[in-house]
Design brief:
676 residues; elongated; alpha/beta
Length: 676
Amino acid sequence: MDREINKFERRIGLYGDWRVAVVDAISEYRDWLRQQNLLDSQATHRIGQILDSIQDDSLYVAFVAEFSRGKSELINATFFSDLGRRVLPSTAGRTTMCPTELRYDESVPPSIRLLPTQTRQSDNSVGYYKLQPEEWTSIALDINDPDKVAEALVRVTDVRRETRERARELGFMIARGPDDDDGLQVGDDGMVEIPQWRHAVINYPHPLLEQGLVVLDTPGLNALGAEPELTLGMLSSAHAVVFVLAADTGVTKSDMSVWRNHVCGREASNSGNKLVVLNKVDVLWDDMRHRSEIERQIASQLDNTARTLEVPRRNLFALSAQKALLGRTRSDGNLVHSSGIGAFEDALANLLIPAKQDIVRSRIREGINDIIEVNRAILARRENDALSHIREIEALSARNVNVVREMLTRLKVEKNQLDQNMRRFQTSRSLFSRHTTALYDHLNIVKLERLIAHAKRDMSVSLTTLGMRQQMNEFLRQVTASMEDASVEIKEIFELMETVYERFQAEHGLANIHPRKFSTARFHREIESLKDRHDFFIRGVSMVMTEQKVLVKRYYDTVMSKVREVFERANRDVEDWIRSVMSPLETEIREHQGQLRRRLESMKRISRTGDSLEERMEEMKYMRKTVAEQREQNEELLARVIRCLEKQADQPMPVRRSVARERAGNVVPIPRPPVR
């Protein structure tokens, strides 16, 4: 079905083009560096990590709401109206009952995968089960038959009836009465209706999903409360969160519980990546009322909602998802415009894409800056060494034996001094190794697992949620202390390497480069965020043994799992930093040793055989010219990388190989003096 592409879709496409252009520019630079013998194994590894991270990059948008707010219909209207029908079920009585991810992985056939609710009995997270495909019920999707696709996706609405006790064992909150909106209602037969599935993953080849978009549909307060991983993981890491309300009711008690406990956390200021939608605004449309009166009522509702949620008014939007979907499937532009969805999609694009691009851009710069610095220094050294050799040969034009002997002596002294410093360098390596051993000990996963096991054991015998809270506080205190100790060790390693760098630069004229800095600040922030979430959560829980203990235990299991994830990422990043912190200096030293060895061999040949000075002079001039061309090409390729990085993803960017790549294969490598 042909229709006008909305701004969000267009911006997603342009963001995808930007990623491809950046990958192309960095790949071109990497290939050129390899041709010029400027790429060691560490730099190759680092660039490979950068390229993988860009290509595997995803944009996460989470939609959160209580039941019957029209959230699934908003997802259908925003992302999938080009299919001519609803992707997610959103008709009366057919609402999404379990958290549902819409994504696309081309290595997996189109399908819907469903994780049974009974897996809640284990301590394992949804993330763990994603690595256990045998635990899921998988249904293939026939993407050529929309009716069959719709029929398969209805499975996300499946429910089952369980006893009150069984529902509580599975972690669901049970309502204390008919007026309690914070739990599942018990029927007259004493049974409770719960979701059949714990989680659903829909793998669907839609153009937006193919670009890396991941849409998370989170249904209702009870599902959020029963699955703390949603709050602590998926929602907290989403690049944009859309909170959906009903325009006719505004913010209800249960809406407020979702907002405070699961979307925004303890501080309203934590709403920077949040958009709020007042959906179903068409219920306020009334042919017997003047349009201006209706608009004033909607504006008043938006103002009241902004004050209640303490969010900027510009982050709120009134719309009708149902009318937007209807208008788009019928190609009715007037109805789409009247629905109000356009302003929301513009805001979503403006919020999501620039913020995500900044994150990716910063990560690339952090990963590639020291590689750029080192390669510039090496090329400058090659050119300077060629110039120095030319001057040495010019000084020998009279074939003065004493001058030759003096130059040989000076070069030998410099080589001996370098050899002596390399022995001292090995001593520094031993100290470096001791520090890294201590650093890894602070972040040791085995020690963390013992700490987790100890905390869980103490919590299991606690008779009150207050006791569980105290154990969790102690656990978080210890992991924070470990991260702080790691930060101190990282600072000492950096200062040690700074001293080593400065010594070689002062004594051998190496380039003024520095070891790459590293900070654990982002890991500290994640742990502090978990501590804040923990404090906020526990204040809403009774401090005596109640039915909520099952929920508290599940919540704490999730906190510990998130801490484990933080430490695993910290270990990977630290390991990468440790490998790279010496790499720039080692590369410079190898280059200096090679140049010194070649100059020494050249002087020896001239001294022994009267080697042709004119021939050596021409060779060195050619080398200097070649290196100058390499420096120029290096800057040209870097300029392309920088231009691509700086380009905003709201502007078209042609993806093509540059002229520099076409020339790269013709660059003449630096000539090496023949061995005689």
